[in-house]
From TrEMBL, chain A:
<protein>
    <recommendedName>
        <fullName>GPI-anchor transamidase</fullName>
    </recommendedName>
</protein>
<dbReference type="InterPro" id="IPR028361">
    <property type="entry name" value="GPI_transamidase"/>
</dbReference>
<comment type="pathway">
    <text>Glycolipid biosynthesis; glycosylphosphatidylinositol-anchor biosynthesis.</text>
</comment>
<comment type="subunit">
    <text>Heteropentamer. Part of the GPI-anchor transamidase complex, consisting of PIGK, PIGT, PIGS, PIGU and GAA1. Interacts with GPAA1. Interacts with PIGT; this interaction, via a disulfide link, stabilizes the expression of GAA1 and PIGK and links them to PIGS.</text>
</comment>
<feature type="signal peptide">
    <location>
        <begin position="1"/>
        <end position="27"/>
    </location>
</feature>
<keyword id="KW-0732">Signal</keyword>
<dbReference type="InterPro" id="IPR001096">
    <property type="entry name" value="Peptidase_C13"/>
</dbReference>
<dbReference type="Pfam" id="PF01650">
    <property type="entry name" value="Peptidase_C13"/>
</dbReference>
<keyword id="KW-0337">GPI-anchor biosynthesis</keyword>
TrEMBL record, chain B:
<feature type="transmembrane region" description="Helical">
    <location>
        <begin position="297"/>
        <end position="325"/>
    </location>
</feature>
<protein>
    <recommendedName>
        <fullName>Glycosylphosphatidylinositol anchor attachment 1</fullName>
    </recommendedName>
</protein>
<dbReference type="InterPro" id="IPR007246">
    <property type="entry name" value="Gaa1"/>
</dbReference>
<feature type="transmembrane region" description="Helical">
    <location>
        <begin position="362"/>
        <end position="383"/>
    </location>
</feature>
<feature type="transmembrane region" description="Helical">
    <location>
        <begin position="403"/>
        <end position="419"/>
    </location>
</feature>
<keyword id="KW-1133">Transmembrane helix</keyword>
<keyword id="KW-0472">Membrane</keyword>
<feature type="transmembrane region" description="Helical">
    <location>
        <begin position="440"/>
        <end position="463"/>
    </location>
</feature>
<feature type="transmembrane region" description="Helical">
    <location>
        <begin position="483"/>
        <end position="504"/>
    </location>
</feature>
Length: 409, 561
């Protein structure tokens, strides 16, 4: 009897030990997964897609923009978070033998116009001024909501531009140009107003790499379809429609994006490999020195989609605030204060060096300072949290999480 | 001149025709209207009439009247702001019936497409180019040539481009394209490139000036053939005639071409489907245009369909020729000043008064008379033939057209006798230097005229410069007078025209005998006068009022006593 009791005790102890070990293993797994939730630091996604050229023979630029629109919408960004600017109406052009369609593949395989395209800026509204106002937020009060970029400091923004360009400029509507300096300044205004968390800039024009040469704000990654001195070429003409349908770079980007679904883990390094010189004839380029994270840790869906991460668990997770990270963030803010002198273009601030020093392996963990609270891991839905008041110490949890937390304890 | 060389028969026929007052051939207007309407076009007609200055061979009458029929295919989804024209000029010989058939077939096909952004006008004209001119004048609301035409009921917007078709058979072995227009105007080179692209795409055989494209440019044959084509184009452009309906469109800055189907003895023939496909392709490309054709050259000469010589390359040649005249004038000016200074020094010791003004006044007086008389001669050459045709037919057994031509030649030859009469007007006090002043003025006059002509119609300017400049520079009263006289006569405008006709037929590999050449020359003279009055061609007034008086001045210089 005593032996069986002892055996039972041993068994329960063993079982308890095993459960504990499993539990701790599971808990550590859950904790790893939880940490992965907050890898990117953004809570909502926006897209600004701009086609700058008009006239029937620039059909391919509209098709480019609509292909990216289609992918971005398919991966989850809603129309309310997409600002689509098309400088001309190709679908309803009298020369279009298939009205209300815009094709990206010849033999009319893929109609990127679709049934529910929502164009926000159309025809002559696509101007440099309107584009810069959209980016910087300096919009007259009468502008409808669909024409505004209502991003906050937790927004990842995708900016895609296509049209005719040259060394250092992009042509709008055959009548005006935007220079790379203006664009860099607009992005700096966005950064100073905390209108983005991270920004992906893609441009498909001739000599596109010249447009991202002048960026000097942090957290920007840029891709271009050709280097300075090279022309971006168009892909294929359709004999029935009579024009070139797509540009090469965007054609292969579209093919790449068609493989992406909201759950895919493809990262930016794969996007950099899209359209090598053998297919594109021009040399695509990219710039990542202003970006804090390693591109191989950046998912495609961080910019092209708006992914709702859901993990259901029955465990309670203890989230530890990362004090080391908080201290480094304090230091970063202090350093930002120090560097408030006016910047000249001749000597650009080596932002790339500055943002990559002093801390490494940073990741934010949502936590409440000073106390640890238990709360089950909840869904953090993106695109529902938009802050109009940006706080520099944005490691503070959202009000909804706080409420939920308060209810728990 | 064929049937009409016998004056009796001619008069009888003319009276018969005029009494009948029936057209020899008429356009089936009602049938065309019905057919176009059934295809789905908006159909309108326009009637016109014109009083010719003298009845020419083809029409045999003074009053020419006709009806144009045109149908407009409206663009389904665009505002009617721009249009394209497909025109078929029909004439009394009805050699263009197949082209009307192709036009109707194309109209039916185009009607079923939805991608037209411009309206398309299908135009069938009567009386060949007279109808085209009447339609164009009414469309643009101008009246350049004195045509009486009824206003157009239907319009379609600004015309961007036009194509004229001439087909006499339903199978063709090759397509010939004509680019030279009225007064040597040319369409934008892009339109020709468009035609050539579709010839290549459709595998059609296309010719320029009736000559095939040389394949081998490395040996001598290729460039030689190119040179022949180039000379043919120069001769055609210099004549200033509209070589097809397209020539009249160019005046309104509407780019236009004429495409002729040739049915020769080749084995491989194309049917009208192939021609229609090429035309459809050209119209679709023109439909895609957003602006008028302006990117390519407007002034060029063509050695082949796929090669051209631009104005920057050929203008220096004319410039150098005219430089000869300028240098010669400069030499004469310096000689005049030396001669003026010489007697001045000699007479300065004797008399206090300056001897130069009297010499100058004598110089001026001796200049004015030849100038005025030559210009009056030119005016007579311009005005008298048409004015005096009735007087001529009353006194001589000739038809009106012949009367005009023969009066022209008579006045021209009368000018050769001028120096004898001119010298009676002037007193014998004209010194030796008088001819220098006259030649100086004549050289500058010729250089100015040729420069202006070369700017607008390079071929004409270059041709006249190449022939007249050597003779004008060499003319000298002292020296072998018969030789210089022969040279001057051979390079006079009329002789140049005769020579060009022989050269033209020689290049086309249909050489003329002397008698045929003379007949052709007379016909060309009549045609030149007629073109000037009906279309506003400028060759006849230029030669009569500008170059002939200038040439007469040189003739005067040669026979200076």
């Amino acid at each position: 009897m005593v032996a069986s009791c002892f055996l039972r005790k041993c068994l329960t102890a063993l079982a308890g030990l095993l459960l504990l070990s499993f539990g701790s293993l599971a808990a550590s797994q859950i904790e790893d997964q939880t940490e992965q939730f907050f890898r990117s630091g953004h809570t909502n996604n926006w897209a600004v897609l701009v086609c700058t050229s008009r006239f029937w023979f620039n059909y391919r630029h509209v098709a480019n923009t609509l292909s990216v629109y289609r992918s971005v919408k398919r991966l989850g960004i809603p129309d309310s978070h997409i600002v689509l600017m098309l400088a001309d109406d190709m679908a309803c052009n009298p020369r279009n033998p298939k009205p209300a369609t815009v094709f990206s593949h010849k033999n009319m395989e893929l109609n990127v116009y679709g049934d529910d395209v929502e164009v926000d800026y159309r025809s002559y509204e696509v101007t440099v001024e309107n584009f810069l106002r959209v980016l910087t937020g300096r919009i007259p009060p009468s502008t409808p909501r669909s024409k505004r970029l209502l991003s906050d400091d937790r927004s990842n923004i995708l900016i895609y531009m296509t049209g005719h360009g040259g060394n250092g400029f992009l042509k709008f509507q055959d009548s005006e140009e935007i220079t790379n300096i203006e664009l860099a300044d607009a992005f700096e205004q966005m950064w100073q107003k905390r209108r983005y968390n991270e920004l992906l800039f893609i441009i498909d024009t001739c000599q596109g790499a010249s447009m991202y040469e002048r960026f000097y704000s942090p957290n920007i990654m840029a891709l271009a379809s050709s280097q300075v001195g090279e022309d971006s070429l168009s892909h294929q003409p359709d004999p029935a429609i009579g024009v070139h349908l797509m540009d090469r770079y965007t054609f292969y980007v579209l093919e790449f994006l068609e493989e992406i679904n909201p759950a895919s883990q493809t990262n930016m390094n794969d996007l950099f490999q899209v359209c090598p010189k053998s297919l594109c004839v021009s040399t695509p380029g990219h710039r990542t020195d202003l970006f804090q994270r390693d591109p191989k840790n950046v998912l495609i869906t961080d910019f092209f989609g708006s992914v709702r991460k859901v993990e259901i668990t029955t465990e309670t997770i203890r989230l530890q605030p990362d004090l080391g990270n908080m201290e480094s963030r304090y230091k970063k803010e202090w350093m930002d204060e120090e560097l408030m002198e006016p910047l000249k273009y001749a000597e650009q601030l080596p932002v790339a060096q500055i943002i990559h020093q002093d801390w490494s392996g940073h990741h934010r963990i949502f936590g409440i300072p000073g106390a640890s609270k238990h709360f089950s891991v909840i869904m953090i839905p993106s695109n529902t949290l938009t802050f109009s008041e940006q706080s520099p110490l944005s490691w503070r949890a959202s009000p909804q999480v706080e409420d939920h937390c308060r209810n728990q304890s | 001149m064929g049937l009409l060389s016998d004056p009796v028969r001619r008069r009888a026929l003319a009276r018969l025709v005029l009494r009948l007052n029936a057209p020899l051939w008429a356009l089936p207007v009602a049938w065309l209207e019905r057919t176009m309407r059934s295809v789905g076009l908006e159909v309108y007609t326009q009637s016109f009439s014109r009083k010719l200055p003298f009845p020419d061979e083809t029409r045999e009458r003074y009053m020419v009247a006709g009806t144009n029929v045109y149908g407009i295919l409206r663009a389904p989804r665009a505002a009617s702001t721009e249009s394209l024209v497909l025109t078929v000029p029909c004439g009394p010989d009805s050699a263009n019936s197949q082209a009307v058939g192709l036009l109707l077939a194309l109209a039916a096909h185009f009607r079923g497409q939805i991608y037209w952004a411009k309206d398309i006008i299908f135009l069938v004209t009567e009386q060949d180019l007279l109808g085209t001119e009447a339609w164009l004048e009414a469309y643009h609301d101008t009246n350049v040539t004195g045509m009486q035409s009824s206003p157009l009921q239907g319009r379609a917007g600004a015309i961007q481009a036009a194509l004229a078709l001439e087909l006499s058979s339903d199978v063709v072995t090759s397509l010939d394209v004509a680019v030279e227009g009225l007064n040597g105007q040319l369409p934008n080179l892009d339109l020709l490139n468009l035609f050539q692209t579709f010839c290549q795409k459709g595998g059609l055989l296309c010719t320029l000036q009736g000559k095939l494209q040389p394949q081998d440019w490395t040996s001598v044959d290729g460039p030689l053939q190119g040179l022949q084509t180039l000379l043919l184009m120069t001769l055609q452009q210099a004549s200033g005639r509209p070589h097809g309906a397209h020539g009249l469109f160019l005046r309104y800055r509407v780019e236009a071409l004429t495409i002729r189907g040739i049915n020769s003895f080749r084995q491989y023939k194309y049917d009208l489907v192939a021609v229609g496909k090429a035309l459809e392709g050209m119209f679709r490309k023109l439909n895609h245009l957003l602006e008028r054709l302006h990117q390519s050259f407007f002034f060029y000469v063509l050695p082949a369909l796929s090669r051209f010589v631009s104005i920057g390359l050929y203008m220096p040649a004319a410039g150098f020729l005219l430089l000869v005249l300028g240098l010669k004038a400069l030499e004469l000016w310096m000689q005049l000043h030396e001669a003026g200074a010489g007697p001045q020094e000699a007479g300065g010791a004797s008399g206090p008064g300056p001897p130069l003004p009297p010499a100058q006044s004598v110089g001026l007086a001796s200049l004015v008379a030849p100038l005025l008389i030559s210009q009056a001669m030119g005016l007579a050459l311009y005005v008298l033939p048409v004015l005096g045709q009735h007087v001529a037919t009353q006194h001589f057994p000739v038809a009106e057209a012949e009367a005009v031509v023969l009066t022209l030649l008579a006045i021209y030859a009368a000018g050769l006798a001028l120096p004898h009469s001119t010298h009676r007007v002037m007193s014998a006090q004209a010194p030796d230097r008088g001819w220098m002043a006259l030649k100086l003025v004549a050289l500058i006059y010729l250089a100015l005229q040729l420069a202006c002509v070369a700017l607008t119609n390079f071929s004409l300017g270059f041709l006249l410069a190449a022939t007249m400049v050597p003779a004008a520079a060499l003319t000298h009263p002292c020296g072998p007078r018969p030789l210089y006289a022969a040279l001057l006569v051979l390079t006079s405008p009329a002789a140049t025209l005769l020579g060009c006709l022989f050269l033209w037929r020689e290049l086309q590999e249909a050489p003329l005998s002397l008698a045929e050449g003379w007949q052709l020359f007379l016909a060309a003279l009549a045609q030149g006068v007629l073109d000037h009055h009906t279309y506003g061609a400028l060759l006849f007034p230029l030669l009569a009022l500008g170059l002939y008086p200038c040439w007469l001045l040189f003739w005067n210089v040669l026979f200076w006593k």
